[in-house]
Amino acid sequence: MDFTKRTEPYALFSEWLEDAKESEPNDPNAVAVATVDADGLPNVRMVLLKGLDERGFVFYTNFEGTKGKEVLGAMKAAMCFHWKSRRRQVRVRGPVEIVSDEEATAYFNSRHPQSRRGAWASDQSRPLADRETLIERVQHFQEKYPDDDNIPRPPHWSGFRILPSEIEFWQDGDHRLHDRVVFTPDGQGGWATQRLYP
Ligand SMILES: Cc1cc2nc3c(=O)[nH]c(=O)nc-3n(C[C@H](O)[C@H](O)[C@H](O)COP(=O)(O)O)c2cc1C
């Protein structure tokens, strides 16, 4: 079916993500996340989408790093997926909420033990003298939390959920005559859609 005729964005997004899993060499869930700093200067970096339901789009990070502080400062963010193999783009923007402690802990516990220790070891986005310092810090948390099944989630490590005020789907067309459709909440629990010029 022509995606520009769809009336609900999450099923469409899930289908496009499944398509991407078949053709992207790695990280089909990779997505650029844009934030602004206190001066309104934009910032952008990749994360991995780790949660998706009808509330929104979830990623996990250190809340004391640059992106964590910028999201917490504005409580707004935007995302851009680009699946080159499919010639597709999806953009998401909106206010942000912090996932529940239960949700964050459940996701944290699903990560590799060394990634869990790494979350303790990394003062994300802050200056690091040399790689040895990082390795020593990982070793420190290896000794502190030797049991793979008992590594607590750091209090500064959690997830953000973008609650979309807009979700835009883009599919490449011949000679730059692309198809674009943007979904916005209709205020009654459903979605309004609008086709846009490419
Ligand atoms: C494909 C890819 C996925 C990434 N996923 C995450 C992620 O889910 N969470 C995260 O904190 N950093 C992730 N990173 C690292 C970030 O891009 C970034 O370097 C780091 O979070 C620090 O960003 P900040 O200084 O803006 O906070 C990823 C990097 C790449 C290239």
UniProtKB/TrEMBL annotation:
Cofactor binding annotation: Binds 1 FMN per subunit.
Family matches, as SUPFAM superfamilies: FMN-binding split barrel
Residue span, Pyridoxine 5'-phosphate oxidase dimerisation C-terminal domain: 157-198
Domain annotation Pyridoxamine 5'-phosphate oxidase N-terminal: ranges: 19-140
UniProt pathway annotation: Cofactor metabolism; pyridoxal 5'-phosphate salvage; pyridoxal 5'-phosphate from pyridoxamine 5'-phosphate: step 1/1; Cofactor metabolism; pyridoxal 5'-phosphate salvage; pyridoxal 5'-phosphate from pyridoxine 5'-phosphate: step 1/1
Stated family: Belongs to the pyridoxamine 5'-phosphate oxidase family.
Coiled-coil intervals, chain numbering: none
Enzyme Commission identifier(s): 1.4.3.5
Enzymatic reactions: pyridoxine 5'-phosphate + O2 = pyridoxal 5'-phosphate + H2O2; pyridoxamine 5'-phosphate + O2 + H2O = pyridoxal 5'-phosphate + H2O2 + NH4(+)
Keywords: Flavoprotein, FMN, Oxidoreductase, Pyridoxine biosynthesis
InterPro entries assigned to the protein according to its UniProt record, in alphabetical order: Pyridox_Oxase (IPR000659), Pyridox_Oxase_CS (IPR019740), Pyridox_Oxase_N (IPR011576), Pyridoxamine_oxidase_dimer_C (IPR019576), Split_barrel_FMN-bd (IPR012349)
Stated role: Catalyzes the oxidation of either pyridoxine 5'-phosphate (PNP) or pyridoxamine 5'-phosphate (PMP) into pyridoxal 5'-phosphate (PLP).
A Pfam match: PNP_phzG_C
Taxonomic lineage of the native organism: Bacteria, Pseudomonadati, Pseudomonadota, Alphaproteobacteria, Hyphomicrobiales
Binding of substrate, residues: 50, 107, 111, 115, 176-178
Protein name: Pyridoxine/pyridoxamine 5'-phosphate oxidase
Binding site for FMN: 45-50, 60-61, 67, 89, 124-125, 170, 180
